[in-house]
Specification:
- Helices cover about 25% and strands about 30% of the residues.
- It has about 280 residues and is of the alpha+beta class.
- Helix 1 runs antiparallel to helix 2.
- The model has no long low-confidence stretch (mean pLDDT about 90).
């Protein structure tokens, strides 16, 4: 049963996302935030809330931001971690493919079912040497390379409803969902895990050296990744409705998430899905 006390915010990153975890992994001084169990990239709730608060302060003022995101008396919204849904992977069949896996789809179905009520078809099982393609797939049925993994296409998953989380048809996103669906595929959980662990961007941090004088690096999630986050109203029924309405009214088309503002990282195009399935 869907809840009228919830919305789902999707974030399609137009530029790479640098949201560091605060730990060091090898020579990577600033690795991206990842789930502990799966090691999939994630955006921690604290990072996302801070970014949204800053955005609302700029557009609606400090008091409006405090009412939604909290002060000493608490706020009107509960924001969880933003979960990865689609990950761009270079391919021999296209500039890149948007990939996901059965475990991600299963989680998405649960999250949408308890919030906005959008029904996503269950994912089929996928072998490690194949990619289950969308019904709108446009790259033929010959084996292809996804990064360095050779996969055999197998039709056909109905991804049309999943496309509801993409930016809506406006401005530069006219017919964008059709483009994504034409290059969408499901890979196995194992292959997806490998790709999201190894397919990030790593670059030298200017002016930072390790203990032995070696360069240090930071890590970023590539542009064209799609995340989503359920947002829940807090308090009485009236308070929940008021908070969610204010959030919908003040949520801009773009928000900047994480670090890296001087080099343009972290810009995401937003879409807001409400309980009745309509979007803003």
């Amino acid at each position: 049963m869907m809840s009228t006390d919830s919305v789902v915010l999707s974030l399609y990153f137009e530029t790479p996302l640098h949201a560091p975890s605060g730990s060091v992994v090898g020579t990577i001084e600033q690795p991206v935030q990842r789930e502990r169990t799966t090691q999939w990239p994630v955006i921690y709730a604290s990072t996302l809330e801070s970014s949204l608060r800053t955005s609302f302060m700029q557009t609606a003022g400090e008091q409006a931001a405090k009412a939604l995101f909290g002060d000493d008396n608490g706020g009107g919204l509960s924001i969880s971690d933003a979960r990865l849904l689609l990950f761009p992977v270079r391919s021999s069949a296209a500039p890149f493919l948007w990939l996901t896996c059965p475990a991600v789809v299963s989680r998405l179905r649960r999250d949408l079912g308890r919030t906005v009520g959008i029904q996503i078809p269950p994912a089929p099982s996928v072998k490690t040497d194949e990619i289950v393609t969308s019904q709108a797939w446009s790259h033929g049925d010959s084996p292809l390379a996804a990064d360095d993994i050779v996969l055999k296409p197998r039709a056909g998953y109905d991804a049309s409803k999943l496309m509801a989380l993409l930016p809506s048809d406006s401005s530069a996103y006219d017919v964008f969902a059709k483009e994504v669906e034409a290059s969408f595929g499901l890979v196995s959980d194992e292959v997806f895990g490998f790709l999201v662990r190894t397919g990030t961007e790593v670059r030298v941090i200017d002016g930072v050296l390790g203990d032995e004088g070696n360069p240090c690096y930071d890590e970023a999630i590539p542009a064209d990744s799609l995340f989503y986050v359920p947002i829940i109203g807090i308090g009485t029924k009236e308070a929940k409705a008021t908070a969610l309405t204010r959030f919908a009214e003040g949520c801009g088309t773009h928000v900047r998430v994480g670090n890296g503002e001087p080099i343009g990282r972290g810009w995401a195009r937003t879409r807001l899905l409400k309980a009745e399935g309509s979007a803003q």
